[in-house]
Design goal:
With about 500 residues, the chain is an all-alpha fold. It is about 65% helix and about 5% strand. Keywords: Carboxypeptidase, Hydrolase, Metal-binding, Metalloprotease, Protease, Zinc.
């Protein structure tokens, strides 16, 4: 990492060195977590939980070091600091304020509860048995409420908004309520309209498998390379729930495979590659400092959804990708033609699984989870009633009822892993992705034609120049204004959906 502009023994230099050590510890945690989720033997779970708990306590101790407050007070008076250093001080103060709100014993208890709950969730999900998860998830929820209350007291926020703030700095549930209520009104009518249009067209022949995992992996790796993923700084593995993790300059992604359907795993790889490109593109000169980190989860989700939904479900991309897919899977016939693949990848269906949902129904999955987790954090609903409330919400928002808990409230790892307040960022990210892709294509009219040639450099270069290299230099809204000329505008997302699913059919 680069040395700060200030004098070697200045308060800013002390902060810079201190947070560099925090980052090194966070990198170690990231690799251990990746191993936990991909290849750690089940018998190691207990010892791993102990190790992770200790590392989280050590990191929390470093983040709450009493010297930080003094260093901040002095450094914020240093007129010699440049723009990046000032932005870094803003981010240091933000994370320090949040961390100092939570006592170490609560951090340790939460880490232990999460490690145990994640392991229990894996088996409970396989068995479709929510009751088996209930005791450990109850403990995680209790501790998340306590963490939210502690942070909320320090920040002047509700417990839920305090948890949301960890993932979406500055985000507030009142604004999200209005946005999601608007989407909940808009999407059902659009869904019905699209389903009616799609029902009138002839059915395409199926893509018949089996599709060997080795072939699917090879195809995924090839497409990662097309998108610009740097394999010298990452790898692809398998996990129960696809994710992007690892450490600085060691950005690892995972997917899961189904030999009856290669299309889902491929888009999962593309989605996580979008996340990874953001991580690999963060400002190297500031690496290890809070200002170098990705700017909140709505921006992070925008990078994955931009690649998966905006770019790689376009006709341009599928014209390029169709022969590549056909060759990789040994396919032939009409089902492998570009237009048939485009229809498959833009098919709208009311389904049970969020990660398999299309662009139009996906927000309903998020709205359901957002409303439920708000109620649970507020203790407005008993956790034991979650399966019933989940199924009722699915019926109301999507018109389907899951037949079991595996296809219902057990499908996501977020709550067992302590990710309360995370879910709304998915749909905020979808809206942001639409706005960024629209701005990129307006700025460079060759982006879509280049994608049709399998050349993602123009798009990735625009994202590097306008999003990735800034890390957390800008606040979220300021970053979006910098990149697109305006704050988040839902009309761009709505227009994109109507154009793709109604006007361009």
């Amino acid at each position: 990492m680069s040395a700060p502009n200030s004098a070697p023994n200045s308060a800013y230099s002390e902060l810079h060195a201190h947070f560099g050590r925090v980052a090194a510890l966070a990198n170690a945690v990231g690799i251990l977590q990746w191993d936990n989720d991909t290849m750690m033997p089940r018998g190691a779970a207990g010892q791993r939980a102990e190790s992770m708990a200790l590392l989280h306590v050590l990191r929390h101790g470093m983040m709450t070091d009493p010297r930080i407050g003094d260093w901040l007070a002095e450094a914020e008076e240093d007129a010699s600091l440049g723009a990046w250093e000032k932005a870094n001080l803003r981010e240091v103060r933000r994370v320090w304020t949040i961390e100092t709100a939570v006592p170490p014993d609560l951090v340790e208890a939460s880490s232990r509860a999460i490690s145990a709950c994640e392991m229990t969730w894996r088996q409970a999900r396989a068995d479709a048995d929510f009751k088996a998860l209930l005791p450990s998830l109850t403990e995680v929820l209790k501790l998340q409420r306590a963490i939210g209350a502690a942070k909320g007291e320090k920040l002047g926020l509700s417990a839920y908004d305090a948890l949301l703030n960890d993932y979406e700095p500055g985000g507030r549930s009142t604004a999200i309520d209005a946005l999601f209520d608007d989407l909940a009104d808009f999407l059902p009518g659009l869904t019905a309209e699209v389903l009616a249009v799609q029902a009138r067209r002839p059915a395409d022949p199926p893509l018949t498998g089996p599709f060997p995992v080795a072939a699917q992996r090879a195809l995924g790796v090839e497409m990662m390379g097309v998108l610009g993923y740097d394999f010298e700084r990452g790898r692809l593995d398998v996990s129960t729930h696809p994710f992007c993790g690892g450490a600085d300059n060691d950005v690892r992604i995972t997917t899961r495979y189904d030999e009856d359907d290669f299309t889902s795993a491929l888009m999962g790889v593309i989605h996580e590659t979008g996340h990874a490109l953001y991580e690999q593109g963060r400002p190297q000169a500031q690496l290890g400092q809070p200002v170098s980190l990705a700017r909140g989860m709505s921006i992070h989700e925008s990078q994955s959804l931009l690649m998966e939904m905006q770019a790689c479900r376009s006709r341009e991309f599928l014209r390029f990708a169709a022969p590549v897919m056909r060759k990789a899977m040994g396919g032939s016939g009409q089902a492998w033609e570009a237009e048939a693949l485009w229809r498959r990848y833009t098919e709208v269906e009311r389904g049970f699984i969020r990660v398999d949902a299309d662009e139009i129904t996906y927000p309903a999955h998020v709205i359901l989870r957002y409303r439920l987790e708000k109620a649970l954090i507020a203790d407005a609903m008993p956790l034991a009633e979650l399966p019933l409330a989940w199924n009722a919400g699915m019926r109301d928002l999507l018109g389907v009822t899951p037949p079991n808990d595996r296809l219902g409230c057990l499908q996501d790892v977020h709550w067992p892993s302590g990710g309360w307040g995370y879910f709304p960022t998915y749909t905020l990210g979808a809206m942001t992705a639409a706005q960024l892709f629209d701005a990129a294509c307006r700025a460079n009219t060759d982006i879509l034609p280049a994608i049709g040639r399998g050349d993602f450099a123009p798009l990735v270069n625009w994202l590097r120049s306008n999003i990735h290299i800034y890390g957390s230099f800008y606040e979220t809204n300021d970053l979006l204004i910098h990149a697109t000329g305006r704050p988040l505008d839902a009309s761009v997302f709505k227009a994109h959906l109507r154009r793709r699913y109604i006007e361009e059919i």
